[in-house]
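ARCHIVE CARD
SHELF: 3
SLOT: left
DATA:
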Amino acid sequence: MEYIENGIKTLNDFLWGWPLIGLLLGTHLFLTVRTKGIQRFVFRGIQLSVQKEEGSEGDVSPFGALTTALASTFGTGNIIGVGTAIALGGPGAVFWCWLTGVFGMATTYGEALLAVKFRVSTADGRMQGGAMYVLDRGLHMRWLAILFALFGCTASFGIGCAVQVNAIAAVCKESLNIPPEIVGVVAGGLAALVIFGGIRSIAGVCERLVPFMSLFYIGGCAAILIHNYDFIFPALRTIVAMAFSPGAAAGGLTGGGIAMAMRYGIARGLFSNEAGMGSAPIAAAAAKTSSPVRQALVSSTATFWDTVVVCAITGLVLVSSIMKNPSIDMAVAGDGGLLTTMAFAQIPIVGPGILVVGIITFAFSTILGWAYYGECCTRYLAGGHGLIFYRVLYILTAAAAPVIQLNLVWMTADVLNALMVLPNLVSLLCMSDVIVRETRRYLG
């Protein structure tokens, strides 16, 4: 087992090293240039997200598709992941994480556009789309489409389910003294109630849960920033300065240099918003829309909310808290989870409460979002006959997650996520002319 774990760790480190990070960031920049800065339409996308298109083909509203995508991207990475980036790369990592979100909006836009354009209607009238259909119908590379669907289906059990339930179990055990076994059963039961209803049920819950948890978390972070008001501007200056300068110390914080800040900031940003992974466009394909560009504009706002807003706010909360309480940085020793816990604990009751509710709701929403992604990948591979088996296995994974050794699960999920990226980028880069042509036709 040790040899297997070491082998997967080596493969994971290789796949998520500079080559893949550079390829993803390069795709973000490439599509930003080719779409002539599609990010400038972000507020138009926000407006379109709350406007229904009656009579258009699809299963859920544009807002339902957006919140389903946000459900999967809003996860522990927005909270603990940002803390890990700061712990390992210094405060400058927050800037690179934020910048990744800004440029990643172009990739999310391109993915969603292609997903809607090449979506299909199944035998039972459902709309299905995603990188597997783009690769199959657009590029006629069925073998690569099968690989993407296989990676996506398998990854959903790890990063989408087991890892998230384990995070809920850990915070419930530590903060509420609830046994992990009970948490697993409850999480599995609640997920089953939603998942067996299909995309309409998942989207219906996400439409209510995502806005609530987002506003609650952002409001809580605002309360902490008010408490840290005298360190907000020093924290901003430190984040920007240490993104471009070697490890100078500030208020107890020490940067790891430009390379470290870039590596961990970009990696956390990419992992948090999933831009380029090919997962979020699966939800976009189910939207009721008359134009691929219209839904793509809506979908691009997911990366805006996830990284440009939520991850940036989390980073500012953590850096300002650490600068106000320098002993935190000395105690965590590179542990992002501990750093986050100690930073939020600086405000008794309120801080830990925000962290607990944030982790539980963010993680549960990810369980729902990834369940739908896994279902779509399963349907592509095995048709509708495989859905019951997939759903049952997904629920059992959720129930058992708190007692599973997650080191190997986490690393395997990371590997599978990286393997999803590669065929998805093939579809994006090879079909970039289609993205440009559709964009010009709709936006002029």
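SLOT: right
DATA:
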Amino acid sequence: MAPSFEPFFAAVREHLGPESVDTTPETVARYGANLLPGGDLPPSGVVYPASAEHVQAVVRLANTHGVTLWPSSTGENRGLGFKSPVRPGQVVVDLGRRMNRIVEIDETLAYAVVEPGVTYAQLYAELGRRGHKLMMDTTSGPPDGGILGNTLDKGAGYTPYFDHFGMSCGYEVVLPTGELLRTSDGGLPGSKTQHLSKYGYGPFLDGLFVQSNLGIVTRMGVWLMPRPPVIRSFFFSFPDDEDLGDIIELVRPLKMNNVVPTLIKVTSDVYAFGTEESYPFEKTAGKTPLPFEVRKELREKYGLGSWLVSGAFYGPSEEAVQPLIERMQAHFMKSGKARYISHAEAEQSRVLKIHISTFSGQPTADEQGLLWWRPGGGATWFLPATPMVGKIASEHQALSRRILSEHGFELAVEYVCGPRMSRALHILLYNRQEAEERQRAARCFLALLKAYAEAGIMVSRAPLDVQQEVMGLLETTPEVLSRLKRALDPAGILAPGKYGIE
């Protein structure tokens, strides 16, 4: 059935009110904009529901008129696509503008219930208004990013509550047919444990709505952590690219034995100083990638080596935490290459203070400076997993450096390390205003994807313009997801193509 946009928008205005639709060229262009190599993807228009009931009405009308929808919460993820749909012409359902309430905060059982528009900055401010008794986990992305959207895209943070999906509990979901589903214990009328008992009774359904196009989540519970009285970070700088393997071998036992409560970050030099610097074309005579001599000069300016290792401890007092910090000093300094940087010293550096904020559950915008490393503000994320084995990490680093260099780009990567694997966040930064560089960035991303797949390594998240290619790497999974899609969305109205699911 050919989509009937004008009758659809007229029906939405009738059901939700005249302010609920915007099809002006300026709005369409703004919602289609992204920073990815594939270019902008303008929708047909934007609708603004104010409640789950509104979302149900929009979904039912989309079924009637054959219109495809693209749900978005706050749409602030720079490296994966902003608010833009996966295909041009899809209608953006902006859940963030009017559905932005913190529905509940339970200070005894430490959880909040949020709508899609609730941002990290908003929840942090509300917890502060209540005396900061509770601490949320945050990303190092923009403070105006959405908690619900990040969770559904398998986003993560850095504190002990880093696993945002794992720390979510109880969803309210509008299915593609317009039915309302409440997960965990939420299916019981009057449930008092929907946001406490994650797995509930029967099959676990929450995962169906993570990185999928099988429903629109309109409300979510998120678990919070009691804020510790003292948070103290530690930092170690390592001088050489080749030190990564040794670093991983030092980090793994700390996380395997749960010695350090936070995740441990291993941040490359360009990722670190790129938050404050722009590419120094005047020093390179316009050539890319960054020559080693200039890289070294920028490291020295910020007191960095090739790698920065960071983590944090929590405790009741300075006296309780200090022995833990000293244990880290002894552990990392035995390498003979590490330089220790104290919490107090790091607080004086914008490059280092980013990490203190994330380990403290405090949203920060400082990392967004990376977007201006190259003119034109282009950015796309490549997120492979790296097993926590030094030899493998070294091989992965060499692979990434080679491919990026061949295409004229720098390695800006942060390995966020758990006990068994790290999420290796590569930020591919390029000039989106230059067609040749944009095309080169697209080729570079696909070369990375192919090389890692051949090495048996999958990515955990994917930008809009390559989701089809990423899903195509998997066997059996796409067909199973297609069968689920046909069962739950028989008319195919909900974001066809999202994550490569048809």
